[in-house]
Design goal:
Number of domains: 1
Shape: globular
CATH class: Mainly Beta
Order of helices and strands: HEEEEEEEEEEEEEH
CATH architecture: Sandwich
Distance between the termini: 35 Å
Strand content: 35-45%
Number of helices: 2
Helix content: 10-25%
CATH topology: Immunoglobulin-like
Length: about 180
């Protein structure tokens, strides 16, 4: 009996550490390569930082994505670096972009990072908005035919202010999978 309880406990521990993908995909803007920092506080005008666009696929994976980025007047966007695993990119970040990866993504994946400069100390937001042609921010999943999935905005990038992270209804499993 003791052996059965130990095995059951071990299985519960292993099962609780496995990260399952959420039922719906997410996209968000971050100020770090670890998709943890969602704001930039400039200590002085003309402050440099790097913005990262991160995606978390749904349970169906992510093969492609579409969205657009808008910049406030106190942000100057500079050099854009694209993830080398992207095989097709149409458009630009600030006019609407569609990207496709060489392989299916089943975990957090970045699409681009961009060098940016804050020109003053005013609070503002760099935002993910719907792709102007598609009318949405969306992923093509990894199922046969790459069907389109609606996704959720996890967060925009806060400039000189605190973060706001999405507050959608979700299961505890979906919330745990974000972290």
């Amino acid at each position: 009996m003791k052996k059965v309880l130990l095995i059951a406990a071990a299985l519960l521990i292993v099962a609780s550490t496995v990260n399952a993908l959420p039922p719906v995909g997410y996209i968000g803007l971050f100020a770090d390569a670890g998709h943890q920092v969602c704001n930039v506080m400039a200590p002085a005008p003309f402050y440099p930082f790097t913005m990262w666009i991160w995606c978390l696929p749904s349970v169906n994976g992510m093969q492609a994505a579409e969205w657009m980025v808008t910049y406030p007047t106190n942000i100057i966007g500079s050099t854009v670096t694209q993830n080398p695993d992207i095989t097709v990119a149409l458009g630009s970040l600030n006019a609407g972009i569609s990207v496709a990866y060489a392989n299916c993504n089943l975990d957090w994946v970045w699409t681009h990072n961009q060098a940016c400069y804050i020109t003053d100390l005013a609070p503002s937001w760099i935002r993910i908005v719907p792709h102007p042609t598609a009318g949405a921010y969306q992923f093509a999943n990894c199922q046969l035919g790459y069907p389109i999935e609606a996704i959720l905005l996890l967060n925009n990038l806060a400039i000189n202010q605190g973060c706001i992270v999405a507050t959608q209804d979700a299961t505890w499993g979906a919330i745990k999978s974000l972290f």
